[in-house]
Amino acid sequence: MTYSVFIDGAAGTTGLEIADRLGSRQEFDLVRLPEDKRKDVDARREAVNDSDFVILCLPDQAAIEAVSLIENDKTRVIDASSAHRTADNWVFGFAEFRLGQRERIANAQFVSNPGCYPTGFLGLVAPLIARGLLPSDWPYSVNAVSGYSGGGKALIERFEQEPDIGFRSYGLTLEHKHMPEMKRHAGLKYDVIFAPAVVRAYRGMIVEVPLNLEAMGRNTKAEDLLEALKDHYNGSAIVAVHDGSGRGELLLNENDAATDRLELYVFADDSGDQVRLIAKLDNLGKGAAGSTVQDLNIMAGLDETLGLRL
User: Fold this and answer.
1) What are the distances in angstroms from CA 206 to CA 85, 119, 195, 222, 263?
2) Mind telling me the catalytic residues?
3) What pairing do the DSSP bridges indicate for beta strands 205-212 and 141-147?
4) Does the pLDDT value for residue 275 go beyond 90?
5) For the chain, how far is it from start to end, CA to CA, in angstroms?
6) Phi and psi based region of residue 16 (left: phi greater than 0; alpha: psi -120 to 50; beta: remaining)
7) Residue 100 — left, alpha, or beta (φ > 0 → left; ψ -120 to 50 → alpha)?
8) What pLDDT, on the 0 to 100 scale, is given for residue 175?
9) Residue pair 218/203 in contact by the 8 Å Cβ criterion
10) 8 A C-beta contact, residue 122 and residue 179
């Protein structure tokens, strides 16, 4: 069976990546609008309602408006924006982070893909909180760096025009659109302290959650976290868990190849009390286009790894 797929916002960074992954797929027929009709409301409404699947790669307000164009109950939507990540009646599109989530995605009409930073944070922390190994009432902090493609065309252009930028810290008001989904989907009592930055690499991302297990007043050690993560992701073709012992560094390179994998690491001191949980992923892969294609596969009843770069 062939499914029709309309990517609303196909000219953006994420839209182009998704189209590239779907371009040679026989299971999907991409619905494309002429250039002069890309922003025409009537043309978009027709495409939305005539398609089996709609993928939204739009700014938040435009994504909300696109959903309002749906006039039937058969069109299924995957939203890659942050507009619906904490909305009721939308399923969070991170298949691996929670038991039963894959089945929720498979049966959903409306799926909201996670943000790139939350993918790393939730991939590390959510399974451990669910198992009671980490507390839900702890003030977690997240230190993260991303490739500049995560900022879209404007930031890509800035990094290309200002070659002296090596590191750009932002979110210094301690507000960020990713914070609500991290809090909600990890089941936290407090907002995380989120310290994001952009580095001179086109793609790639490292997300770190430092922990002092002794201060949490529990008997949990680093090895417990490692074994729990290995068990949770056992058998996954997309998520891998690594013992960080003996590894001296993790690198992002300026021209790393695209990947849809999520690599999770547990680093610890000799006592097992001081821990650095670290996720490495491609902000355009598992952090955006890769997870969108994975969700599309799941919703269509296909092997979820088809078309992914693994």
Assistant:
1) 21, 11, 12, 19, 10
2) 116
3) antiparallel
4) yes
5) 25
6) alpha
7) left
8) 87
9) no
10) no
How high does pLDDT run on average in the chain?
96
Confidence of residue 153 (pLDDT cuts 50, 70, 90): confident
Query: 286 in helix, strand or coil?
Result: helix
pLDDT in tens, 61-93: 999 999 999 999 999 999 999 999 999 999 999
Q: What is the pLDDT of residue 74?
A: 96
* Cα 262 to Cα 90: distance, rounded to the nearest angstrom: 23
Q: Which tokens is 115 given?
A: 């943000």
Query: Tens digit of pLDDT for each residue in 97-107?
Result: 999 999 999 99
Can you name the residues that pair with 265 across neighbouring β-strands? 242, 278
Q: What is the dihedral of CA 113, 117, 123, 124, to 10 degrees?
A: -170
- The structure tokens listed for 104 are 């929720």
Q: What are the C-alpha distances in Å from 187 to residues 88, 191, 228, 291?
A: 15, 10, 18, 22
